[in-house]
Amino acid sequence: MRVLILLLALLTGLPAVAQPIAEQPGFDAFVERMEREHGFNPERLRALFDGVEIREDIIATIKRPAESLPWYRYRPIFLTEERIHAGAEFWEEHRETLAQAQAEYGVDPAVVAGIIGVETYYGRHKGDDPLLESLGTLGFAYPPRADFFRGELEEFLLMAREEQLDPAEVTGSYAGAMGRPQFIASSFRAFAVDFDGDGRRDLWNSWPDTIGSVARYIADHGWEAGEPLLHRLPEDTEAPLEELAEEGLKPSLTVNELRERGLALEGLAGDRKAAVVRLEQEEGHDHWLAFGNFYAITRYNHSELYAMAVHQLGEAIREEVDG
């Protein structure tokens, strides 16, 4: 019925009928569970969603993520002179905090700077979608990932209560990510830190909290200080690279096992585990061995394109800083 209404609206030029989130299937059960498991007042929770409606533009956007682009089109979005220069300024301004985060968590400042640069262009693009709208829309009107986003809506309401935030006032990305590092609510609750010691975890206004939280997130997802990220593979290799890349991003084969599969790998420890990453260029593909630290970056966004953009942006920033 909903699809028919929208189709008729498009054909007739009439505006689509408003669809309150509070009237969607599953909303009542959600409210009951929030009361039963977390002690939320059901009347106040329903009142919070009064006037909050399904956003069809959010559903359309999530169906075409940037990570669906080929590498040669994805990379130029983030590897620009302007963003690299902004990253160098960010590094210089927050050099001491980046060093403190590295001392605490072991994470390379270039990775932290790269992530914040890719995520929000150093706080310039934090998103202005009300999270009640984005998470409510995706949690109750986007079946492919409704369970995930309904869980994030639960985490968001818990986070807002814990952090003493008005959930109706919190904005972020169309997919529910928040603040300068674009943490989703479950990541905020699990990994955000009060790195400036003011008693609050503020990822909207505090650069120390943002830097420390990103570093902790990557550290808690397996980063090992001093270990490599990548090893470029020669173009003329005869190994079955496409087949190896299909085995996933998680390093699962040792260098010795990859040698047995036909890769000529010199100067690498035979027991180090790696995965093969394949990136589409305008002509052909680039191939890399990706180690555990690269995989740790993909836990922030489960895409080899994302992790490579973070890495290359961070290294370009480091080069400008070191000048």
Automatic annotation (TrEMBL):
Pfam families: SLT_2. Coiled coil: none annotated. Gene3D superfamilies: 1.10.530.10, Bacterial muramidase (1.10.8.350). The active site is at E119. GO terms for biological process: peptidoglycan catabolic process. One of its GO terms (molecular function) is peptidoglycan lytic transglycosylase activity. Residues 26-314 form the Transglycosylase SLT domain. Keywords: Signal. It comes from the Bacteria. Residues 1-18 form the signal peptide. NCBIfam families: MltB. This is Membrane-bound lytic murein transglycosylase B. It comes from Thiohalospira halophila DSM 15071.
